[in-house]
Design brief:
about 210 residues, about 50% strand
Length: about 210
């Protein structure tokens, strides 16, 4: 289940096919899906000889990932967050990794502003740039993040953890001047988000209903 959120606070519920963790990773390899678990990134595809009946090939891309989240494709590499290690990682096609940033605490997720700067959610608010300096909503923890084409930063936060009594979460938009305002407060465990349509509304997925 998803909820469509607008910057003016208007929302609309619906069902949308979302690309989040597995789908985003799969998009990187184009010909196949990629799955991740607590210790490895695995890519799958065909042998390239035939679309019908071609043998399946599984290749381990990287190991030693403690808790992989927020996969993104950016400038020819797969980026992701390792929550337990506190690292933002970038992988090339051979599995070589580079630590691009370090974050204390979790959750944290990443995207990029129109000017190319990395922007991230952290337990201390939204941060940006190579030094992860404060960008907006300082002091507020958030989970997932997506940036729309005009540079608005959409972030969400569950109201409770999966093992706790269900409480609704929130969706907030952070603007370039550092101001922020809540646009939805009745989403149940909001998680991955996408920007949809000509009006550039944000649609978070509900991973827990009621």
């Amino acid at each position: 289940m998803t909820k469509e959120c607008h910057a003016d606070g208007h929302t609309r519920s619906g069902v949308v096919g979302l690309v989040h963790l597995w789908g985003t990773l799969g998009y990187w390899f184009r010909r196949g899906g990629v799955r991740h678990n607590q210790s490895a990134l695995v890519r799958r595809g065909t042998d390239g000889y035939s679309r019908r009946g071609g043998s399946r090939v599984t290749e381990t891309l990287a190991t030693g990932i403690q808790m992989g989240e927020s996969p993104r494709w950016h400038e020819g590499r797969l980026w992701m967050c390792d929550w337990l290690a506190g690292e933002v990682l970038a992988f090339d096609g051979d599995g070589n990794r580079e630590v691009m940033a370090r974050v204390e605490g979790m959750p944290f997720s990443i995207d990029w502003l129109p000017d190319g700067r990395l922007v991230a959610t952290t337990p201390r608010g939204v941060v940006a740039g190579p030094d992860l300096s404060p960008y907006g909503a300082t002091g507020q923890p958030f989970n997932e993040i997506v940036v729309d084409p005009v540079g608005r930063v959409w972030v969400d936060m569950p109201g409770s953890m999966p093992w706790e009594e269900s409480k609704p979460g929130t969706v907030t938009v952070v603007l370039a001047d550092g101001s922020s305002h809540q646009v939805a407060d009745d989403v149940w465990f909001p998680n991955g988000m996408v920007v949809l349509g000509k009006d550039r509304s944000c649609s978070p997925s509900h991973t827990r209903i009621g």
